[in-house]
Design goal:
Layout: H1 9-20, E1 27-34, E2 37-38, E3 42-45, H2 52-64, E4 71-77, H3 95-107, E5 111-119, E6 122-125, H4 144-148, H5 172-193, H6 207-216
Parallel strand pairs: 4-5
Antiparallel strand pairs: 1-2, 1-3, 1-4, 5-6
Helix pairs in contact: 2-3
Length: about 220
């Protein structure tokens, strides 16, 4: 077990992508806690406009399934500026979503440790009463000291959540090998189960048809 102490919100935000093993983009990251110890990161895409309560109920429900979790931190990653617009004017963007998460967490007995936002022009805390919100520099979140305290396997460069999800393009020879392997597997399954690997249409002379026909044609014993 590796213990990394963070002194403030900026250090905590520098650590979250390392815990998630990706650089979240347009995401909500929830960090469950057991006391002062983190239990990993749950990352989900930001929801579409509206439906905040349903989204919050689902996400907090997932945290409740984490054994020993008694608290959580919320981090919103957005490509919008920190200051909200329209109905959110004067507040941090996506504040309504965060408040919905807070209500659901409170109903489930989970303490809220942090509510933070990483936006396109800086970062801030939803607990900050400043209006309009003043973004802190994103440079605060590049903390080499925090990274240096991590295990070596967690120090490498990070892509966003889509990195590595694409499948490689196989060449023709590889495709043919896979095809042969699938055919062999199908034949092996058929041999074990006593059924042919490929489905065959039942004909009028199949055993089931013969048995049914013989019952219908049996001579009377009267």
């Amino acid at each position: 077990m590796t213990l990394i102490k963070t002194a403030d919100a900026a250090e905590f935000l520098a650590l979250v992508p390392r815990l998630a093993q990706c650089r979240p983009v347009r995401s909500v990251a929830v960090v469950p806690f057991d006391g002062s110890r983190t239990l990993g990161v749950l990352r989900v895409d930001l929801p579409e406009a509206g439906g905040d309560d349903g989204f919050a109920a689902t996400l907090v429900g997932m945290v409740c399934k984490v054994r020993e979790a008694d608290a959580m931190a919320i981090v919103v990653y957005t490509d919008r500026p920190l200051a909200g617009t329209g109905p959110e004017r004067g507040a941090i963007v996506h504040e309504r979503l965060v408040r919905a998460l807070e209500r659901k967490a409170e109903a489930c007995g989970l303490e809220i440790r942090e509510t933070l936002c990483v936006a396109s022009d800086g970062w801030g805390s939803y607990a900050d009463a400043a209006s309009p919100p003043v973004p802190n520099p994103l440079a605060d979140l590049v903390d080499d000291d925090v990274v240096a305290r991590l295990p070596v396997e967690l120090r490498g460069p990070l892509g966003d959540q889509t990195a590595g999800v694409g499948l490689p393009r196989p060449d023709l020879a590889a495709s043919e090998r896979v095809d042969r392997a699938l055919r062999s597997l199908t034949d092996a399954i058929g041999a074990v189960s006593g059924r042919p690997g490929r489905s065959r249409p039942r004909t009028a002379t199949s055993p089931g048809s013969i048995r049914r026909r013989s019952r219908r044609c049996a001579p009377s014993t009267t």
